[in-house]
Every structure is written in C-alpha cells, then in structure tokens.
C-alpha cells in the first residue's frame, strides 16, 4: 500500500494532488461537524477537549481498594501539572485531583506513580501496600510450561472492560482548549480533573459504540479480526486479554475512525477513495490505546503507536480528540509527479518467486528479526480488509506470515539468498540491484555481505541516506548498489 501511495499520491499529477488534498480537508470538516453536533468533545462552558488521559485501575487484593495504575503522576513538565490521589473511604477508591503550578519538589514526588518495578504500590492510612502485577493478573504456567494468566479474554463485540475484570480503564485527566481560543491559531489549553459531566459524555460515546458495533463490524467500518498470537502480537493478548484488533482502541477512537470510513465511502472518483483510505492508516496509527502521553520541556502531546515497532501495552494512555488528530489526517506529502507516459503495476509476490526480467531491482528487505513486519502489518490489515475500495479490493488482505523472510539464523540467511538469487537470475549482465540497509548491528552487516555474495552479486557503491526514522539515536541508513559478480 505504501508503494501504491508512492506511485499514486506522491507521483500524482498536480491536479490530482489538489483533489486529494481537498478530499482530506472535506473528510475532516464533515467528521468534525458530526462530532460537534453530538457534543461529545465540548463541555458546557464551550471548551473543547484536545487529549484524554486514561489509566488502568485494579483492585488491591490486600485492602479491596480500587487503585489507579500509572508509572508517574506527572502530567505537564511545562506547566508543573500533576495528578494527586485522594482516598474515598466510603467507596474504597481514589479520587484523582489535577493540580497546576506545583513546586519542583511536588513534581519530583509525582514522578513516583502507583506502579514501580512491576508492582502496584500505594499508601493508605500511612501503610504501603505492594502487589506484583503478575499476582494481579494471576500468572501461571500450564503443564507444557506455557505462560498463562487469569485475565478474561475480551470478545468480538466488546470494546471496554467488564465491571468485574481485573483491569479497568479510567479517564483521569482532560486537556482542554479554552472556548475563547478555539477559533484562534494558537489554542490556549489547560488540564483538568474529570467531572460528572465529562463522565456522562464518556457514557454517551460508549452507548453509540455499543448500539452499533455489530453492524459496523459487519460492514467493515471497524475491525472484527482476531489477533493471531505470535512474538509481538502475544503482548496485547497476554497483558490485557485483548483478542481482537479493535480492542486496541478506546470507544472515542473507534467512533472517529468509523466516521472517517463512512466519509471516505461517500467519495467519488477512482483515485480519491483508495488515496483517502490509505491516508487513514496514518490517522489510525496515531490514535490507539498503545499511544503514550509524553511531556518534556520542548514537547507535550500523545505519541504514535509504532514509535517503537512493537505492540507494547501501557498502564496509562492518551486519546486524541478529533481536532488533535487533524495533523495526522490532513498532512502534506512530497510531490514528485511521475512522467505522464509512465505505466505502473503492483503485484505482491514473495521475492524468491520473481519471474519477470528487469534492468533494475530496488529492494528494502527485512533485516534479521529487527522488526516483525508480518505481525505488525496485521494492525493495519484489520482496518483495511473488509470492503476496501478498488484497486485494494483485488488485493489479498492477509499478512501471509508463512511467506515472510524472518528470524535471524540460517532460515533468514537462506531466505535472503534465495530471494536475491532469483532477482539476479532475472536481470541482464549490466543490470543493477539497489538495496536499502538500515540495521545498526555489525553482525547483521557481515551476514548481509555473505548473503549478497552468495546470491552472485558484488557491491559497486554505497550512499548514506536519511530515512523516516532518522534521529539522534538512529542515524539513518545506507543504500548499496550491486551488479552481477
Ligand atoms: C524494511 S520493510 C520494507 C518497507 C517498504 N519499503 C515500504 O515502504 O513498505 C521489509 C518488507 O519486506 C517484506 N518481506 C518479508 N519477506 C518477504 C519476501 N519473502 N518477499 C518479499 N517481501 C518480503 C516485509 O513484509 C516488509 O514489508
């Protein structure tokens, strides 16, 4: 799909590009109107939500109290905002107060959340209680040595915990944009505790999802695909009991994406539907329960799902309200329109089955077990596979895990040699292969040298390039060119 986007969005003519940009804006405007009409993101003072912060909550086995679970109570390092727990003895639970402009010392104290070193830890009446998360979950091994636990597995039509589940999900803070600044470029924001009115809006969203989920799933407006267990996909299942891909989304997130999908279905024109559908994949990745809240002196917002290429579940997560998602729904692409006489075709086959000759092969292979693409792709496939627009309706919406070159040992090396040998055999004597290489591990570098040599290739040049993940930590990658040896 990314290759399709490179050719059909980045490579589109200026006129088509303008149409796509218009369509992005139209979709956002329509969805925004729908959300404003429902009144689910505005409060009675006219303020509009920007971000919702949620945390898990669990009952302490020693006291029976319901305890919010967070690694830190710091909410804003820019404005010294923290959350504070106030015991409610009658309800055996904690109210959560949001306090702004606290002292440096209080900020330091707030860094200690209720989960430390894998344990739920909190104080009540001067006594500290500590329970390992493993105990809360009821971890055990079965007769075959498999790691299991007592978390209930969520079902297909569920989207929130049941009241007696071990882990509850609780809204604990809202970042608001003030009513007066809503029409201004610079929005003024503040953090506030959750009120009864806010909880009513939460129930309203949940009710809309509850009433429609079966039908939305049937029509492919939201996922109904089970999570297939494997290295990375095991984590949501094991640590939360989430068994379907939509369990990674909170009701507000589901609702926004269903609205997006509905809007893209209304779009006319052969290119707009698939273009908007692929763009939506970015919005979806930027609003899940795997998105953490990040605060620092320079930056304060929610962070995307694949900021690390795994499926790590979080104790507390941030949900973007619609206006805060706009940057990831209306966004610019590089422009590089293809010559009008060019013809493109996309086929998806395992590289070792290449059967057509080509002068140039450009590849961006997986490197050892660095990223489990075949598993992570399923996150997107879950949203895309039902009723996709043409030409995606002709694609096989399955990650085809069995065909992926994976692992890090001999299987990986053998798979890579087979793939590059097949391509080498299908290029002329003066043909070329360009290979992206972004791995940091020198061990993998020497593997790669062996792989390309064994495939009958020799290096003729390498270039240092910046990649999408280039940062101070990850310093870009290389493009290497090979000819037949
Ligand atoms: C580094 S990623 C490439 C990402 C690509 N440049 C893009 O923008 O989508 C490596 C890709 O190789 C794919 N892959 C794994 N085994 C393969 C095989 N046997 N044949 C072809 N592609 C394979 C993975 O699924 C993954 O999408």
Written description of the protein model:
With 485 residues, the protein is of the alpha+beta class. It has two domains: 2-328, no CATH class; 351-369 and 406-484, Vaccinia Virus protein VP39 (Rossmann fold), CATH 3.40.50. It has twelve helices and 19 strands. Strands 1, 2, 11, 12 and 15 form a five-stranded antiparallel beta sheet that branches. A four-stranded mixed beta sheet has the order 16-17-19-18, with helices on one face. Helix 2 (14-38) crosses helix 7 (251-266), helix 5 packs across helix 7 (251-266) and helix 7 (251-266) runs antiparallel to helix 8. The longest helix is centred in the first third of the chain and has 25 residues, at 14-38. The two termini are 33 Å apart.
Sum this structure up briefly.
The protein is of the alpha+beta class and 485 residues long. The protein has helices spanning 2-10, 14-38, 104-110, 133-137, 196-218, 234-240, 251-266, 272-285, 322-325, 373-384, 410-425, 442-454, and strands spanning 48-59, 66-69, 74-76, 81-88, 93-99, 115-116, 119-124, 127-132, 140-141, 147-148, 168-177, 189-192, 293-295, 300-302, 316-320, 360-363, 432-437, 457-465, 477-484.
């Amino acid at each position: 799909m990314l290759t399709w986007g490179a050719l059909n969005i980045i490579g589109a003519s200026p006129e088509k590009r303008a149409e796509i940009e218009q369509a992005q804006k139209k979709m956002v405007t329509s969805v925004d109107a729908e959300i404003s009409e429902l009144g689910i993101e505005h409060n009675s003072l006219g303020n509009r939500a920007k971000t919702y912060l949620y945390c898990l909550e669990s009952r302490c086995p020693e006291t029976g109290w319901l305890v919010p679970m967070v690694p830190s109570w710091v909410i804003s390092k820019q404005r010294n905002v923290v959350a504070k727990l106030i015991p409610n003895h009658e309800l055996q639970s904690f109210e959560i107060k949001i306090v702004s402009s606290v002292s440096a010392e209080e900020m330091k104290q707030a860094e200690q959340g209720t989960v430390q070193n894998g344990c739920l830890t909190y104080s009540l009446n001067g006594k500290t209680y500590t329970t390992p998360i493993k105990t809360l979950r009821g971890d055990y091994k079965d007769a075959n040595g498999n790691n299991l636990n007592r978390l209930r597995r969520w079902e297909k039509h569920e989207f929130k915990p049941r009241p007696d589940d071990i882990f509850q999900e609780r809204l604990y803070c809202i970042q608001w944009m003030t009513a007066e600044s809503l029409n201004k470029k610079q929005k003024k924001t503040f953090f506030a505790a959750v009120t009864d009115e806010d909880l009513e809006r939460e129930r309203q969203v949940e009710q809309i999802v509850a009433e429609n989920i079966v039908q939305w799933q049937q029509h492919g407006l939201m996922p109904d695909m089970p999570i297939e267990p494997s290295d990375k996909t095991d984590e949501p299942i094991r640590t939360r009991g989430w068994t379907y891909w939509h369990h990674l989304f909170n009701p507000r997130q589901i609702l926004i994406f269903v609205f997006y999908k509905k809007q893209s279905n209304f779009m006319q024109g052969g290119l707009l539907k698939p273009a908007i559908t692929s763009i939506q994949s970015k919005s979806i990745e930027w609003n899940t329960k795997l998105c953490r809240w990040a605060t620092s002196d320079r930056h304060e917002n929610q962070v995307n799902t694949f900021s690390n290429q795994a499926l790590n579940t979080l104790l507390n997560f941030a949900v973007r309200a619609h206006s805060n998602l706009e940057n990831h729904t209306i966004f610019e692409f590089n422009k590089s329109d293809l010559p009008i006489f060019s013809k493109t075709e996309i086929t998806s086959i395992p590289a070792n089955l290449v059967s057509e000759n080509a002068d140039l092969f450009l590849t961006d292979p997986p490197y050892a077990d660095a990223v489990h693409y075949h598993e992570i792709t399923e996150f997107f496939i879950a949203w895309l596979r039902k009723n996709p627009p043409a030409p995606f309706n002709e694609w096989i919406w399955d990650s085809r895990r069995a065909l992926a070159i994976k692992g890090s040992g001999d299987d990986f090396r053998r798979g890579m040699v087979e793939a590059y040998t097949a391509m080498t055999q299908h290029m002329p004597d003066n043909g070329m292969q360009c290979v992206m290489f972004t791995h940091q591990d020198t061990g993998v570098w020497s593997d790669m040298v062996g792989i390309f040599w064994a495939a009958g290739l020799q290096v003729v040049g390498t270039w240092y390039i910046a990649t999408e993940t280039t940062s101070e930590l990850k310093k870009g990658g290389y493009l290497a060119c090979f000819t037949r040896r």
